[in-house]
Amino acid sequence: MAPGLQRFSYIAGDGAPRLDAASGEELVRLDRAASVALGRRSPELPGTLFVTTRKRLIWLSEAEKGKGYAVDFLAISLHAASRDLEAYPSPCLYTQIEAEVATDEEAVESNPEANDELDLSRVSELRIILGDPGQRILLNYGRPWLLPILPLGRHSSLQHG
User: Fold this and answer.
1) Structure pTM?
2) For residue 72, which of 92, 94, 95 has the smallest C-alpha distance?
3) Which of 18, 73, 136, 153 lies at a 20 to 30 A Cα distance from 104?
């Protein structure tokens, strides 16, 4: 998979993503009623978030069958649990992902988030909004360290600082 956010349409008859079984890819986490917001756009209608052993996040829409997005963990350059309701209207996992960099001229001509047809290669932010904001997400980026479990609810024991 190329770096950055990609469309994902490899969906099995049961609605789950088709994984690369030949390389040993397996499902390690599934979260129903998860929405994603691409860039500054409003969240998509709820779908299902999948995390695989191939270090991919895959989101599939429940409302629009065949619609989905995927991103490799290594394309995620930053993530944080966001609980600031002034910055975003609901708790979410905020991620920055690798994206094509446009020249100033290209940016003026083609805002990747302006029209309905979104240029995914230029989307640099992805928010994951879980149906239950009290859920916890564990992300392991395949590095020698394991990121902490990030509580997304308002009653988190993590302090800002």
Assistant:
1) 0.76
2) 95
3) 73
> What DSSP character marks residue 122?
G
151: enclosing H helix or E strand: strand 150-151
* Secondary structure of residue 159 in the 3-state scheme: coil
How far, CA to CA in Å, does 127 sit from each of 8, 108, 146?
17, 24, 21
pLDDT at 19 over 80: yes
Residues in the chain: 161
SS3 21: helix
Q: How far apart are CA 56 and CA 71, in angstroms?
A: 6
pLDDT digits (tens, 9 = 90+) for 104-151: 444 434 444 454 568 898 899 999 998 876 665 555 444 322 333 444
Which residue is it, tokens 């240029």? 119
Q: What is the distance between the alpha carbons of residues 54 and 143, in angstroms, rounded to a whole number?
A: 13
